[in-house]
Structures are given as C-alpha cells and as structure tokens.
C-alpha cells in the first residue's frame, strides 16, 4: 500500500485533514459527468464537483482472472484499503485475506465514521469500507459485521429487509443496533427530528431494498428516494462533525450505475443531479471548516455512455435515449447512448479539494486514493 504525505488546505497547500469526505458516483465516468453538467448547469456551466480545484484520472481495473473490468466491490476495496482484488469481494484481497480500510483506521484513531448511500447500506461499495467478505451478496453478514466491528457511527440508506428478523434469521438487527447505542429511524421525519447531539449513533433505513427502482431488462426505473441524498449527507455531516477528533464519511449515489445498467438515461440524470447537490453540501462544509479533504470520483464507468446530438428533426434514433433539454437554453437538446448494459474499463475522473488533495493530481490507479486519504489524516498507510 502506498503511503502519501499530508498536503493541502482548501486549495492545495499545507496542513492535515481533520475530516475526509469521499463521495462516489457509482458508474460515473467522464461522459456521465458531461451529461449531468448539460442537464444541471448548462452547456457552459460548471457542476459543483467539477469546480473542485484538483483533478485526476483514475484507473479502475481489478485483479479479476478473466477480465480486468471491475465491479463495485473490487473498485471500492481498492479505494478503501489500497488492495486490488477479484470482483465480488469486499474488504478482502485477491487471496481472500481481510485488509484494513481507511474507515477502520480512522475509527481506530478516534474519529467518527459514517456511510451514506441510496443503495442498500450493505451493498458492495459501503461494505468494502466497513466489512470483510468474499461474496458481496452476503448482506446480512455485512450488517452483522457493521455492528460487531463497532466502527460506524452513522449508517444511512436502504436495505431494511436485511436487518429484519426472518425465517432462519431470528435476530432483528435493528434491535441489536439499538442495544449498541444507535438511534434507529426509518423515515424522513424521523431523520429530520433526530438532533445532532445526544451522543447516540444513528441508523437510518429508508427502503426495503435500494432507495430507487431500476429494471435492467425492461429499461424501466424511478429515482425518487424517500430521503434525498443531499439531506442524508447533511445529516451525516451534522452528526459526525460533533466529534472533536474529526470524521471519515463515505457518500455514494448508486443509481447512476443502476440506471446505466437499465439504459435509463433520464433517471440516471436525476441521480447525477442529486449527487452534485450532495457535493455542494459537503463543499460548503469543507469551505467553512478549512480542514476537510473532499474527494469526488466514480468507482468505474457503466454502459459506455456517449453524449450526442439529436437526430435531424429532433428526437432520438436507434438506441438513443432522450432528447433532454440543456439547462438554461431555450432550444438546445442532447441525447444519450449506451454501447453496453455493463461496466467498462475506461478511466474515471476525480476532483478534490482540501488537505492532501494535491496528491491526487495526474493519472494513477484507484489504490492511490487510499494512500492519499490516509496520508491526509496523518495515518500510516502500511499500518
């Protein structure tokens, strides 16, 4: 694993990061960011995530035996631990050994930690930061490890059914969470009413499965989380920032990937807009505090997306989706086209600000993100 020294303030400079916020747009490559920009900021506008001062290009290939094209579990493990692994594995290396993650190391250093996602809270990306399994589908075991490990202070997202008592699984893990000091909420009102203070941890499960619906066979889907990602992000920061030692927070927008698999470009754009508004929440906090490393990156690209002009006479043709209006324009439109329903191996863009961000300039593999976060917090990446 790569040890990277601390580096910068709000702009690249000197200092140590008290807080680290890693925001992952699952399935978000360069074309996805371009499309989200057109829909949200306009042809000549700038997304909040694209306005961050440090830019990098990240390689995502996994250690998979048959193909280097990664899945979310392997990509998240590389970012969380600095270890390349096979697809489907979360928090373990290529031979199945558990690897310490940046979230676990931050907790051991006395920092508060949290995960926020629009997917199941036990899905591949969050699992890679706070659990160790050779099969990303072991949702209930991942939930048990969250509680057993004791590192997580905030858990917000979907996947309620994996925590409930069921046939062959008599334990209600939400009750176990309460016993371990978590305040449990299952709706927007409960989250809003839960204060930042009080010393209690926070578990919020807002859907039985993911917080959106996507059907990769029919192309159907709906992105309408009962608790929007920016609100979950704001609440997580509010709770975690009470810790005097600082915090580590993972925020994931999973629906960019899910809607890419479904080739549902309209709902992918909705999810992308929510992601950028969540970045704005984190950016505003980072600017006010001055000691926060903020990173925005995709774990991989999904669907081989391209941004194209509509067919002559308007509308789309072939497999194109759209047209979609360009924000701030009275007549400009664009269409989106996917070349596959799966992941691709293209590099993904990264943007960052704050202490240590200058270590993320240039082109590199996703394992470097782990070293940069560890170094920014003054932690030994080899330990």
UniProtKB/TrEMBL annotation:
Q: Name one GO molecular function term.
A: alkaline phosphatase activity
Q: What Gene3D superfamilies does this protein's entry cite?
A: Alkaline Phosphatase, subunit A
> Where is Zn(2+) annotated to bind?
26, 257, 261, 299-300, 343
> What does the record say about how the cofactor binds?
Binds 2 Zn(2+) ions.
SMART domains per UniProt:
alkPPc
InterPro entries according to UniProt: Alkaline_phosphatase, Alkaline_phosphatase_AS, Alkaline_phosphatase_core_sf
**Cofactor(s) needed by this chain:** Zn(2+); Mg(2+)
The family database entries (PROSITE patterns) matched by this protein are listed as: ALKALINE_PHOSPHATASE
Keywords of this entry: Hydrolase, Magnesium, Metal-binding, Phosphoprotein, Plasmid, Zinc
Which residues are the active-site ones? 72 (phosphoserine intermediate)
- Keyword set includes Iron-sulfur: no
For binding Mg(2+), which residues are annotated in this chain's numbering?
A: 26, 123, 125, 252
The similarity annotation says: Belongs to the alkaline phosphatase family.
Q: What name has this protein been given in UniProt?
A: Alkaline phosphatase
Annotated source species: Rubrobacter tropicus
């Amino acid at each position: 694993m790569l040890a990277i020294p601390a580096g910068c303030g709000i702009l690249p400079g000197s200092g140590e990061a008290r807080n680290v916020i890693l925001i992952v747009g699952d399935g978000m490559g360069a074309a996805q960011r371009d499309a989200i920009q057109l829909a949200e900021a306009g042809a000549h506008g700038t997304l909040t995530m694209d306005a961050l001062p440090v830019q990098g290009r990240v390689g995502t290939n996994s250690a998979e035996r048959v193909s280097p094209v990664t899945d979310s579990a392997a990509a998240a493990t590389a970012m969380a631990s600095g270890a390349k692994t096979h697809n489907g594995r979360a928090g373990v290396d290529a031979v199945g050994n558990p690897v310490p993650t940046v979230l676990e190391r931050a907790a051991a250093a006395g920092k508060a930690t949290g995960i926020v996602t629009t997917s199941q809270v036990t899905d591949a990306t969050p699992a890679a930061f706070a659990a160790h399994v050779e099969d990303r589908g072991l949702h209930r075991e991942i939930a048990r490890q969250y509680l057993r490990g004791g590192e997580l202070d905030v858990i917000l997202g979907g996947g309620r059914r994996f925590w409930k008592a069921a046939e062959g699984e008599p334990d209600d893990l939400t009750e176990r969470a309460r016993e371990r000091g978590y305040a449990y909420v299952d709706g927007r009102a409960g989250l809003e009413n839960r204060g930042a203070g009080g010393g209690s941890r926070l578990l919020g499960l807002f859907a039985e499965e993911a917080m959106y619906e996507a059907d990769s066979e029919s192309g159907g889907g709906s992105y309408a989380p009962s608790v929007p990602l920016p609100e979950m992000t704001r609440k997580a920061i509010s709770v975690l920032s009470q810790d005097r030692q600082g915090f580590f927070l993972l925020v994931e927008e999973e629906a960019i990937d899910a809607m890419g698999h479904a080739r549902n470009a309209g709902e992918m754009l909705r999810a992308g807009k929510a992601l950028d508004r969540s970045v704005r929440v984190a950016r505003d906090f980072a600017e006010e505090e001055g000691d926060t490393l903020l990173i925005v990156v995709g774990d991989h690209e999904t669907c081989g997306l391209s941004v194209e002009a509509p067919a002559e006479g308007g509308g789309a043709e072939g497999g194109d989706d759209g047209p979609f209006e360009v924000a701030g324009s009275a007549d400009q439109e664009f269409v989106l086209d996917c070349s596959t329903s799966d992941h691709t191996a293209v590099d993904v863009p990264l943007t960052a600000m704050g202490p240590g961000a200058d270590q993320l300039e240039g082109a590199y593999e996703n394992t470097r993100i782990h070293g940069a976060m560890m170094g920014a917090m003054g932690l030994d990446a080899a330990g």
